[in-house]
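Lab manual, section 2.4: Encoding a predicted structure.

Procedure: take the sequence of the chain (449 residues), apply the prediction step described in section 2.3, and record the output as C-alpha cells. A sample record is shown.
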Amino acid sequence: MMRTRPLKVALLGCGVVGSEVARIMTTHADDLAARIGAPVELAGVAVRRPSKVREGIDPALITTDATALVKRGDIDVVIEVIGGIEPARTLITTAFEHGASVVSANKALLAEDGAALHAAAEQHGRDLYYEAAVAGAIPLVRPLRESLAGDKVNRVLGIVNGTTNFILDKMDTSGAGYSEALDEATALGYAEADPTADVEGFDAAAKAAILAGIAFHTRVRIGDVHREGITEVTAADIASARRMGCTVKLLAICERAADGQSVTARVHPAMIPLSHPLASVREAYNAVFVEAEAAGQLMFYGPGAGGSPTASAVLGDLVAVCRNKLNEATGPGESAYTRLPVSPMGDVVTRYHISLDVADKPGVLAQVATVFAEKGVSIDTVRQQGRNPGSGDEVVIEQGGGGRRVGGEASLVVVTHRASDAALSATVEALRKLDTVRGVASIMRVEGE
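Recorded output:
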C-alpha cells in the first residue's frame, strides 16, 4: 500500500542539473510515487540568486539560506548539486545530523573527503548516494558497489570526461589542432569559459579516485591520482597514433597490482588500438571498461554530462534512498575494508610512444638505442622521418633492423615494449643530455592492448 504522507526533499542548487531534477520531480510525480511507494514533495530549493526566474518552481520554495533548509528536521532527503568543497561538505554533514539522507553529484567533494562523509552518514544512520558524480547518466557506481560486490575487479579503464573526448575526437577526425578543437567545443557548450578542470584532467582525476575506491574496496583520494591533461597533445601525436592503428583518448585508469597488494589510479592521454571498444567512443560521450575476475569484461556507455542525463542519475538515487527510508533501512555504505596502498606512478608498467627531435647524422639512432638499453627499456619499433624541405623520406626500423639516414633535420619516433614509468622517465632524462637530441617532442603511453 502507498503511504499518503509525502517524503520531503530539499534541493541544494538549481542550475543546469538542479532545475532539471525539479522539473522531472514535478512532471513525473505520479510515476516516482508509484516506484517509491509514497509521494515525494519538493519542500525547498536553496539558490544563490533568488531573483532569477525558475520556470515550474513555486517561488515560495526558493531560499538563500541552505543551512536553515537542511536543519528543518522534516526533510527526508537532501539533493546536493551545488558542487565544490564548501559549503557543500558542511551542508551534507548538517543534513545527516538533522535526519536527512543525501543524494549528491559532487565528484570533487567525494574524491577529496568521501571517507569522512561516509563515516558521518554511518554515524547518523543515513544514506549517501552519488551515482551522478561519475559519468552522468551511465549506471556505474551502483554496479561496482552492488552488482560486482561479490567479484574481484582488477581494472577500470574509461573515458569519463566528455569535453576532452570531444576535443580529441575532433582533432582525430578533422585534423584540427588543439586550440581549434577547443574553440569548437566551447562554441557548442561542451567546454566551460574556463576549461581548466576538464582539459587539465582534474575532473577525470576526481572520478578516477571515486571509481578506484569503490572497485578495489579501499580509500583513494584525488591526491593519490596521477594526473595529466590534453593541452600538450598535438596534431602530430594524433597522426602518429593513426599510423600505429590507434587513436588518442584521455583515459582514467584504475588497476590492481598483479600481486593484489596495491592499486594505482591515473589520468592521462594515451594511444589505444582502434580495435579496442573505447576507441569508437565519439564526441562528448563517456564509456568505462571494467575487467573483473568472474564477470570478465564489461563496458558501460552513454552521455556523461548535461542536465537531463545527470538528473536521471540523481533521481535514480532518490528513488533508492526513499525506498530505504520507507523500509527504515540504509543502503550499502563505504566498503574500504582492504586498506590497499596506492602505488606511485613510477611503478606503473605500460608501453610508450616517444617522439624525439634529433640531428640527422650518422650514429644518432645507435646513441638513442644505447640509452634505452642502459635504462632497461626495450625498443619495439623506431620510425625515422626527414624534415628537410621536400624530403618526405621515412623509414621504419624494426628492433634489430637497419635503417638509412635521411638528409637535413629529422625526428625519431620510438615505440617501446612494456616498461615501468620510472624506467621511462630515467630514459627520457638521459636522452635530453645527448648532444644529438635537440628535444623530446612528446611522450605518450600506449594502453588497451
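Check your result against the sample. The first strand starts at residue 7 and ends at 12.
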